[in-house]
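ligand=acetyl coenzyme *A
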Amino acid sequence: MNKKLSACITGLGMCVPPKILTNADLEKMVDTSDEWIAQRTGIKERHLVNGQTLSDLAGIAAEEALQGANLQGKDLDLIIVSTTTPDMQLPSASCLVQKKLGAKKAACFDLAAACTGFIYALSVANQFIISGAYKNILVIAAEVLSAITDWQDRNTCVLFGDGAGAVVLQPTTEKKGIISTYLAADGSFSDFLEVPAGGSRQPASIETVQQRQHFLKMKGNETFKVAVRMLEEAASKAVSLAGLNYKDVDCLIPHQANIRIIKATAKRIGLDENKVFVNVDKYGNMSSASTAVGLYEAVKQGKIKEGSIVVLTAFGSGFTWGACVIKW
Ligand code: ACO
């Protein structure tokens, strides 16, 4: 009988655009202060595109992940791009990335699960690997949130940044890789965090543009309360599905929306803060790219080593939430 397959991450990549917008820069744009932003969110600066497209960021992150896995574009069987801000409505960002990589035999699709998208995409890729359907899968989480940010709205414009993270997944018969995933959603919260226009319900028109309906609207305070509960619930479910306890966890990578959410989640879980990865200060909230870039940086900084138990947990518009446990 064939040995049981697991999906193992064999390559990692990331890309943030070089342009940095600091809190001091934002003070000149809206009625805010470095003190308010740093205290209420933990964010000090964020990277924003300046001419680059989402597929540019995704392509750079993907090239690095492919190199790490010792693969070329032509070896890929599947490309999944998690994003809420593709270059355009059609074709998908994944097809544009396929073109950049020369990944001619890869099937391609985009996945929309907002900030939880990287975890949803890992879960989908995991199924294709453990079923034996595909061997070389590229998962990218990329976001250009600056394109849907209302730069006149101080409630939201201080929060977001642009960036991309990528991983290559391959099958292994060793006892490592993705151990469990947990996915959840509740559409009854759909109006807590939305971009009202630009879809088929309210196609772009002069009125929708004048009413600033193409920008992200968020009920921040209400979202905050649900986020803490769901990040903890998802992590607990995934850890339990993996047959583990929190004492086994070496590194928690929570969605990077707000340092207060991250700290409150760590407290609910009872996890030591030095096991909780934080980069929200440097990048702000990059939606689904946050957990992907977090994983990349935690590995590069030596916080994740061979054999480490890693938990990714995220929460976002929808609401969607989910978590993934990986043995490194
Ligand atoms: N600068 C100065 N003052 C501000 C700013 C700002 N940038 N933004 C809001 N304020 C003011 C408000 O107007 C309000 O003033 P008021 O009391 O006079 O009315 C006051 O600060 C407090 O506002 P709150 O909204 O209650 O502030 P809160 O502490 O909740 O922080 C924040 C707001 C940072 C948005 C927080 O609620 C948050 O992080 N929410 C969750 C975000 C999240 O998790 N999103 C999910 C994923 S995102 C995705 O899917 C793309």
